[in-house]
Design a protein that fits this description.
Length: about 210
Amino acid sequence: SASNEKPNVLEPQIIKNKTAKYNENSVNFESSELRAKLEKIKEKGAQEFYNGNWEAALPFYFEVLKYRRNAESFEMVGIIFEKMNKLKDAFEAYENAYSLGLDSNHNIARLGVIAEKIGEYDKAQKYLEKAIENNPKRADIILSYARCLNKQGESLAAAQVLAVLRDSSNSYAIKKAAEQEYQKIIEETENNQDNQTGITFSETSKK
């Protein structure tokens, strides 16, 4: 009878640094026995995931990654960590997926938004700029990009980015979110006693 014992949990950084026996393109070289084993492990992980048991699902995907380092499994690990609000771990998993070929607009935007939230502003700016290039009208990306610019000391640029949302034909909710971020930038700049930039916001204060 099949064992109900769950694989040992491996931390993301261990998976990242571990020399995997199989990479994304070597699935065709797996033995039929190993392939069947990994598919069963994935099925168990998927079952736990769709039942909402995030933490219980993780060990199964980590076990797959021990043998088959692929974007699909890293993305699932990222999704689970994001649902558990472990954003640094989620970012690491999504970035591994990106390096293995998951370069969809969705993943790029997701990387940028999460990087901004965890304070990885250099990476956030890189991914968000790509995301905006791919989808210039997506408001959550633009808001995240403005916050990222502001945190990097580019307050005027951030205000100008927000002005696009505030003065556009966007919904009331989007305009309100942009206005709130804009006001935060003004307050932070005015409260910064060491600010030597002489930034003014008159050019971006249109209502």
